[in-house]
Design a protein that fits this description.
With 139 residues, the chain is an all-alpha fold. It has two helices and no strands. 80% of the residues lie in helices and 0% in strands.
């Protein structure tokens, strides 16, 4: 219990400090550097003219536009490939169903043939049985 109490006291202290910093308008963000970083020296820095800055901006803009166009082309290719892939899968599925329908049609045709054959055989047996019964009764 004592450990939890110490932890809560630390949390209370941190919250109190943060609240005081907020109300006192103490800046809590990093400011932009106004001096050179310690690893750069004045003789190593280069100052650019306005025209050089503008030409660099134009070059970067042109490269960015080219990269955007290339990315758009790649995205369009990917979209087309995914559409083609789905279409190919749909065609494979349709072919599978067509083959299954052909198999079912052949099975139905075979069943009709065997049904007709069985009906003819049953009719012949019935007729011959009728003649046999009729002949047996008439004697």
């Amino acid at each position: 219990m004592r450990k939890n109490g110490l932890r809560l006291k630390n949390c209370e202290r941190i919250i109190a400090i943060v609240l005081l910093m907020i109300f006192l308008k103490y800046p809590m963000f990093a400011e932009q550097q106004t001096e050179l970083p310690p690893n750069l020296h004045e003789k190593e820095t280069r100052l650019y003219s306005d025209s050089e800055v503008e030409s660099l901006i134009d070059e970067i803009s042109a490269a960015a536009i080219e990269a955007i166009d290339q990315a758009a082309g790649e995205a369009a290719k990917a979209a087309i490939l995914s559409v083609l892939e789905r279409e190919a899968e749909a065609l494979r599925e349709a072919e599978k169903w067509r083959i299954q329908a052909d198999i079912n049609a052949l099975a139905v045709k075979q069943a009709k043939k065997s049904g007709v054959k069985n009906t003819i055989i049953a009719a012949l047996i019935g007729i011959l049985g009728g003649f046999a019964v009729g002949f047996a009764i008439s004697k």
